[in-house]
Amino acid sequence: MTLTRKGELTRTRIVLGASAEILESGVEEVRLEDIMARTATSKSQLFHYFPGGREELVLAVTRHETEQALAAQTAALQSFASWDDWQHWRDDMVAWYHGRGLRCPLLGLLSADAGRRMPEAQAVMTEFMTAWQAVLTEGLRRLQATGRIAADTDVESAAAALLAGIQGGILLMITTKRIDHLEAAIDQAAAALRA
Amino acid sequence: MTLTRKGELTRTRIVLGASAEILESGVEEVRLEDIMARTATSKSQLFHYFPGGREELVLAVTRHETEQALAAQTAALQSFASWDDWQHWRDDMVAWYHGRGLRCPLLGLLSADAGRRMPEAQAVMTEFMTAWQAVLTEGLRRLQATGRIAADTDVESAAAALLAGIQGGILLMITTKRIDHLEAAIDQAAAALRA
DNA sequence: GCCGGTTTGGACTGGCCGGTCCAATTTGCG
DNA sequence: CGCAAATTGGACCGGCCAGTCCAAACCGGC
């Protein structure tokens, strides 16, 4: 499928609109009609740019969101050198979710579809988690290199635990509409690594 | 609605069957027809015992599963007195999920429905998480009382972080089909508390 | 300004599935 | 037994919504 500039624009408009719609209402709730309304497109456009229909569109949204999130995390973590940086990263993340009304663009996508209905989405999510963990590991290594973390600490499993804490924090944020679990998880990880 | 013994039996048969069906296929995937087939019931029975239809049934399943989980956690944690107990609890939990094919009866229920479509389910889940955290806090307090955890440790936020780690571990287990995040999260929590 | 391909509009369809309904059967109690 | 209530069977309905289709409009190169 060859796209002109105009087509490209429409396509991304659809992805962004669908993304927003899903964030607000959840994957399962969103109807193609909703996306059409928000993005001012017709059904034929949807199926023109996403021949696989709804599923392909959701997959595209998943890809888009994971890329965004990963880019943000990479940017924040690649210059890790002090506990101040850590604190900054933590506060930014908390603030970001606050700004989104304590919702998460990805979590809804994950457990609803991934694994059963859409193996492809599952694969994207797995890859995303793996990449995120790698980024975290890198960050921890950087702190270790500058002596902030003891040299004999196993940063691999520390990163695994930290990622779990973050994901769980987000999950609990969505469920309970409170953000303190996320804060506690990251803070406890910091405390453990500082010791 | 008054239930005879027979009715009671049918009702629980439906809940258990629906529960199993949901565990296998996910809430969204499951059709009333699937549940009817598995539990050998007719549609009129479903609506007789759950006048609210699908939604009420899912809610009943949610309640059932949370009760089970909470009972299990309470049993395991109420006799906490040593790090051996901790290790046991950890291993049992890991083994339990292994036995379930690295699936979780509750996580699917949570993010799919809770919050948007079914505020009631959301409430049940929130209550469940709160209760679980309370049970964890109790357990930690017990370890603290016997000197295994430093007296000045804030067990409240430690429990919050631990719960986040567990939830995230389960989430990552579902996504990646690996259980090491859950292990790492619990182990790191133990390490942090031991120090 | 003509011609291929791209983009867009929107009516229509077809299946799926939750929910309704009524009638038949069983149960428990006096 | 006899009756009222509980239980069960399953046909049927109707809305919803993803996906299809055809034709119109638009665009860009020559």
Could you characterize what this model shows?
2 copies of one chain form a homodimer. With 195 residues, chain A is an all-alpha fold. The first copy, chain A, has 2 domains: 1-51, Arc Repressor Mutant, subunit A (Orthogonal Bundle); 58-194, Tetracycline Repressor, domain 2 (Orthogonal Bundle). The first copy, chain A, is built from 9 helices and no strands. Chain A has helices at residues 5-25, 32-39, 43-49, 54-77, 83-99, 107-113, 119-145, 155-176, 180-194. At the A-B interface, helix 6, helix 7, helix 8 and helix 9 of A face helix 6, helix 7, helix 8 and helix 9 of B. Chain A binds a DNA duplex (30 and 30 nucleotides) through residues 1-4, 6-7, 10, 31-33, 41-49, 53-54.
Query: What do we call the CATH topology of the largest domain in chain A?
Result: Tetracycline Repressor, domain 2
Second-tier CATH architecture of the largest domain in chain A: Orthogonal Bundle
Radius of gyration of chain A: 19 Å
Order of helix and strand elements from N to C terminus of chain A = HHHHHHHHH
Number of strands of chain A: 0
Biggest interface, and residues per chain? A-B, 47 and 47 residues
Largest sheet of chain A: none
DSSP helix fraction of chain A = over 70%
Which structural category fits the helices and strands of chain A? Answer: mainly alpha
Domain Tetracyclin repressor-like C-terminal (chains A, B): 104-187
Domain HTH tetR-type (chains A, B): 17-61
Pfam family, one (chains A, B): TetR_N
InterPro entries (chains A, B): Homeodomain-like_sf, HTH_TetR, Tet_transcr_reg_TetR-rel_C_sf, TetR_C
